[in-house]
Amino acid sequence: MKVLSQTSKYGIRALLYMVSHPSGSEYMSIGEIAREIDLSFHFLTKIFRELTAKGILYSYRGPSGGIALAKPASEIMLVDIVFALEGKDYFDQCLLGLPGCGHAKPCPVHDFWKDVKHDIRVHLSGTSLQHLSEKIVSEEVRLLL
Amino acid sequence: MKVLSQTSKYGIRALLYMVSHPSGSEYMSIGEIAREIDLSFHFLTKIFRELTAKGILYSYRGPSGGIALAKPASEIMLVDIVFALEGKDYFDQCLLGLPGCGHAKPCPVHDFWKDVKHDIRVHLSGTSLQHLSEKIVSEEVRLLL
DNA sequence: CATTATTCAGACAATTTTATCCGAAATAAA
DNA sequence: TTTATTTCGGATAAAATTGTCTGAATAATG
Ligand code: SF4
Ligand code: SF4
Questions:
Q1: Which domain holds residue A15?
Q2: What are phi and psi of B82, to 5 degrees?
Q3: Which of A56, A94, A125, B27 has the most CB atoms within 10 Å of its CB?
Q4: Name one Pfam family in it (chains A, B) (predicted).
Q5: Structural domain tally of chain B?
Q6: What residues are paired with B128 via a beta bridge?
Q7: C-alpha to C-alpha distance for B27 and A17, rounded to whole angstroms
Q8: How far is B5 from A59, CA to CA, in rounded Å?
Q9: Is residue A145 a part of any domain in this protein?
């Protein structure tokens, strides 16, 4: 059951680390984040470039450069990250994948599937990085091993 | 959002077609099913071999051979098909994919994710091929284009 | 027995996803 | 101005998923 791609999982984890471990300086380097959450620096760089292109991050090159949130953490919702990394058609996928759906009658699992998708959408839309970060900082939950 | 692999989607659609379009004879040929639901005969054959190996189908070779349900349609639940085709660890996947999870504290989205997985599990466990087939036969919903 | 229809088994190819790597561009600091 | 640090861009590779194909095994039928 792959609700999120590796790319999205890494992206969310990396952003949560950023928000939960503020560096003091304006920008945080990708290398440091990759080291801390233990994933490939180059892969994370690729993910962050996409998030920068989509307006979720700012970036700045050179020494003491790095990346920073383009908006307050309270205004970045999980759904924004997912849309940026998985595409805006993220919720258009189907459980059975009938050809030409949306036009004719629904398939036998549509009602159920619709509800599941709705639940996920509501939750991803209502949860901000700030919200999750607070849980991490208070050590209510964990992000690292 | 890929909740089911193509393999599972095809498998479920094919089984639903079988149940909703009984052939009169004991076995139904894979070729006919593949033609009716418009997918590759060879791919469907591979899927059905797996379902046969997992005890969900019987098979019989030769002319007038084919496949048949190993149990009444009312006793084959969606979850059985998913477990057979996606593996028994289907519900063990994580939203964030933290390393070494299940041991230490949960991640910040665990509560939500647990609920979503539970909903899906309950539904897949409670829905039989018979149940869905009735909806199809009564033309309440569609399976084909 | 020969022919035909069917599943079985697995090799192979195409596509997508995931991951690695290298060099260029920008920029701060020495 | 030189050097070190960092993101940017994209090539390449590895792995997983999806799809195609060929031949063998099995069994009914003429
Ligand atoms: S009816 Fe709904 S769940 Fe079923 S294939 Fe169409 S959009 Fe997807
Ligand atoms: S805490 Fe729960 S949702 Fe989060 S990674 Fe672990 S098992 Fe998955």
A1: 6-139
A2: -65, -45
A3: A56
A4: Rrf2
A5: 1
A6: B77
A7: 57
A8: 36
A9: no
A125: CB partners within 8 A, 6+ apart: A77, A78, A79
pTM, rounded to two decimals: 0.94
Q: Is residue B112 part of a domain?
A: yes
CATH of the domain at A61: 1.10.10.10
- Report whether B127 contacts A91 (CB < 8 A): no
Contacts of B142 in chain A (CB under 8 A): 98, 104-107
Please check whether residue B1 lies inside any domain of the structure.
Answer: no
Q: Is residue A94 part of a domain?
A: yes
Q: pLDDT by residue (tens digit) across A61-115? A: 999 999 999 999 999 999 999 999 999 999 998 899 887 776 668 999 999 999 9
Quickly list DSSP for chain B: -BSS-HHHHHHHHHHHHHHHS--SSS-B-HHHHHHHHT--HHHHHHHHHHHHHTTSEEEE-STT-EEEESS-GGG-BHHHHHHHHH-TTGGG--SS--TTTTTSPPPTTHHHHHHHHHHHHHHHHH-BHHHHHHHHHTTSS-S--
User: Could A90 and B1 be called an inter-chain contact, meaning their C-beta atoms sit closer than 8 Å?
Assistant: yes
For residue A63, give how far its alpha carbon lies from the nearest alpha carbon of chain B (Å).
Answer: 31
Task: Report pLDDT digits (tens) over B20-55.
Answer: 999 889 999 999 999 999 999 999 999 999 999 999
Query: B12 contacts in A (CB within 8 Å)?
Result: 96
- The three-class DSSP label of residue A143 is coil
